[in-house]
């Protein structure tokens, strides 16, 4: 096992920016208003299981269809790039229908463990040790749980403009991460 604080911190920040639980607070509050209670514990645990499982079997699934991790990482850098553009510019490139219930399905997947998160996990796997990524996932799931539990308090504390500023800051961080992922993996394709 090769635990590396720098790898853990970087992977944690990448996943934190991609999951964007702070930016999702308006969606979470909207779900809570629609259906009442949100199952924070269940959504957090299921999202964590999905992410850790994908960390181990995602590469096998890719190899089954003939795609290597470097190609997936480069493709993932494009997805992360567009997520960052959405966050920075406040536009929507991908519009998903609003869920009807606030259960595991809309929260754990796709809100927390969505396509961007899965792409990031495999992209991170191309560069970092698995144990560091697992710790980063656990740290993020703990943070997701705390945010889900206290979303109303956070919204009152930050206000709409505060949430907007945080979203833009993480958008810029995500954009830099996308550029780094692309640059470090594209050479391995040729």
UniProtKB/TrEMBL annotation:
Q: Which InterPro entries match?
A: Multi_antbiot-R_MarC
Quote the subcellular location field of this record: Cell membrane
Q: Keyword Transmembrane on this protein?
A: yes
Q: Could you list the residue ranges that cross the membrane?
A: 12-31, 43-63, 69-92, 104-124, 130-148, 169-187
The alphabetical list of record keywords is: Cell membrane, Membrane, Transmembrane, Transmembrane helix
A Pfam family annotated for this UniProt entry: MarC
One GO cellular component term of this record is:
plasma membrane
Topology of the protein relative to the lipid bilayer: Multi-pass membrane protein
On whether Cell membrane is a keyword of this UniProt record, the answer is yes
The text of the family note is: Belongs to the UPF0056 (MarC) family.
This chain's protein is named: UPF0056 membrane protein
Organism, per UniProt?
Answer: Sinomicrobium oceani
């Amino acid at each position: 096992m090769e635990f590396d604080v720098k790898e853990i911190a970087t992977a944690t920040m990448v996943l934190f920016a991609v999951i964007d639980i702070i930016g999702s607070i308006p969606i979470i509050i909207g779900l809570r208003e629609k259906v009442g209670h949100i199952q924070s514990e269940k959504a957090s645990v299921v999202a964590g299981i999905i992410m850790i499982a994908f960390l181990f079997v995602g590469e096998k699934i890719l190899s089954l269809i003939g795609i290597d991790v470097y190609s997936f990482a480069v493709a993932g850098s494009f997805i992360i790039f567009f997520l960052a553009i959405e966050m920075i510019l406040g536009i929507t490139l991908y519009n998903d229908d609003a869920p009807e219930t606030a259960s595991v399905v809309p929260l754990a997947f796709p809100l927390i463990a969505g396509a961007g998160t899965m792409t990031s996990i495999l992209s991170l796997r191309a560069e970092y040790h698995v144990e560091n990524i697992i710790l980063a996932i656990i740290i993020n799931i703990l943070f997701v749980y705390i945010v889900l539990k206290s979303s109303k308090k956070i919204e009152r504390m930050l206000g709409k403009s505060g949430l907007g500023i945080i979203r833009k800051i993480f958008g810029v961080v995500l954009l830099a991460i996308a550029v780094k992922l692309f640059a470090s993996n594209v050479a391995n394709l040729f």
